[in-house]
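Subgroup meeting minutes
Present: P.N., E.W., G.H.
Scribe: E.W.

1. P.N. recapped why we're keeping a running log of single-chain structure predictions: easier to compare across weeks, and new members can see raw inputs and outputs side by side.
2. G.H. added today's entry (543 aa).
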Amino acid sequence: MFKNYFILNRLILENNSLLKDYTLHSAYTQEKDKLVFEVSNNGDKKAVEVSAAPNFEYMIVRESFTRAKKNTAEFFETHLPSKIISFEISDHDRIIKIKLESSSLYFFIRGNLSNVILVDNAGNMKSFKKINSQALAKLRSEINDTKFISLKNEVQLNLTNEIDYLAEAKKNFPFLGKDILNELKFRRENAADNSVQNIFDGIIDEIFTGDIAVYYDTEIGREKLSIKTFAKSNVKDINEFDNVNEAMLYFLRTKYYQNNFINLKNKIDKFLEKEIEKTVDRLNNYHVVLQSKSREDEYNKIANLLLININSIGKGADKIKLEDIYDDNKPVEIKIDKTISPRQNAEAYFGKAKTERYKFERAGELIKALTNKLDKLKRSKEIFSASTTTEDLKNIMKEINMPANEQHEQTDDIKNKFRNFVIDGKYSVFVGKDSANNDLLTTKFAKQNDYWFHARSVSGSHVVLRVDNTKEAVPKNILKKAAALAAFYSKAKTSGVAPVSYSLKKYVVKKKGMEPGKVAMLKEDVLIVKPEIPAGCEMLNKE
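Output recorded in log:
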């Protein structure tokens, strides 16, 4: 219920009281889909954190927030700092408005389309998450047609069908949310007062004035946020709060802890299953070895026969016939290596006998060791199944010698090392800055089906056009715009037109010994373009 319209309505009322006379100084991101606003008033600093992550949208106020020293990106710089006038909410939708002196920020809670949009007093718009011009224009129209309020929304249901009241309420007021409709249904079925409006009014009053409960729902297996007085079952660990922000902070801490616990538990479970399976396979293999007949005696006998007859063995044959003195002088055929001497052949057979002996001795030792390991893994599995804390899981990891995951540099961090453009609000383009940076872009960052560009026959930046959907063809005009960037960031910058080579990245290779920034193209097409930053191409980061 943390995204319910009326919970958000209560939140903006609380924020108006909490952040009155504060100034918004900067907006930045250091995590995907999460925007942080730094605010202050007479030295008192806070941070408003907005998550536009699909299906996990929220707004909270933190008393402190540590900004990373690198890998952050600024937003809306030209419009900040600006004093906060008020927090408001749409009268019929989950759109939160932060009204500033010279602009307004709109937080749209829309699942995959969730975003933060800035609109200045002149009507200019900027978005936090990438959005095409058509969608942005649609949001502008929606904002213009929406009434925003900074008070409690007094909703009058005015129902005409008392029997099918839930369907009518859902149709007329889709922003109510299933939690309120479920509570309305429960109370009407169990209350003496059967008036839907009266019951509804009571529910809304409790949302705005009652304590908020954060608890663990044992039926669905996760934390939930609701109103203390709402009907509940199968719950434990209830914590109560008198404001939305404190409840949300606790809810997030608990949720992140649970997510970390679940992720870690899944990794350990996968590791244990893999180790058990691998150990069982090895045990079976060594049991097969022990069940097979050892050829140690056979190889020793052959070696001795070769030594006894060493003077009668001719050269150049790959097999010989000898009398087997160990079996009533019966004839026996022995394979030998004609490229080495008879004595060396005998030594080779002695070596095979020794290997056979070692193989069987080693198989016995390994079966014993692997049996002990399997027993240990199974005991760890039992303990693991009963683990309830992260500390328990870490102890299990030590017990089973599970290595901690290495931290690799993430793609989202690497991309900040390059010039980053977006074409037509949809296509991401990355431009290298120097030879070493070009190598990083081409060999580490670019994907196999991305498009790769470079001005032909002159030095310049490597340019990569990201292809997120390989089933969707990239329009030719987008390729030309990316090529224009490649020409612009090259020695051909001052030319009227310039040829630019391009291909899929998988046809671009860096051979051993090549200088920094040098690559070879296995396939090549050429576009003739004007060196420029073309229309519809926006730089997302500063150089």
